[in-house]
Specification:
Elements: E1 3-7, E2 10-13, E3 18-25, E4 33-39, E5 46-51, E6 57-59, E7 67-72, E8 77-82, E9 91-98, E10 112-113, E11 117-122
Parallel strand pairs: 2-11
Antiparallel strand pairs: 1-3, 3-8, 4-5, 4-9, 5-6, 7-8, 9-10, 9-11
């Protein structure tokens, strides 16, 4: 059974930083594409960042230059370093895992999802 567990969310002031982590179990992590998505109340789920199994990162335009995705295959963990946070970054952040051919920017292409971690940025 695949399990994705996110952590690291919280309340931060605008301009601050947070680091999200997602630990995966139950699948071969090194060959998995991993993604971070977010969903704010009343809005659709949107792509934030993804990383292919070859370690190539992808970012939404809204977070480029502020967020960094990385992975540690030895720890089965993907990270999202979020700097210069803005109130509009407030959302539940979800981790997702897919196979080697996953289109990392496309939510429907992922196989497994975590429960999410809340990020709240105050102005």
């Amino acid at each position: 059974q695949v399990q994705l567990v996110e952590s690291g969310g919280g309340l931060v002031q605008a301009g601050g930083s947070l680091r999200l982590s997602c630990v995966a179990s139950g699948r071969t992590f090194s060959s998995a594409a991993m993604g971070w998505f977010r969903q704010a109340p009343g809005k659709e789920r949107e792509f934030v960042a993804g990383i292919s199994w070859r370690n190539r990162p992808y970012y939404a335009e809204s977070v480029k230059g502020r967020f960094t995705i990385s992975r540690d295959n030895a720890k089965n963990t993907v990270y999202l370093q979020m700097n210069s946070l803005k109130p509009e970054d407030t959302a539940v952040y979800l981790c997702a895992a897919g196979g080697p051919t996953t289109v990392v920017v496309d939510a429907v292409d992922y196989d497994d999802w975590g429960q999410g971690t809340q990020v709240t940025v105050s102005s």
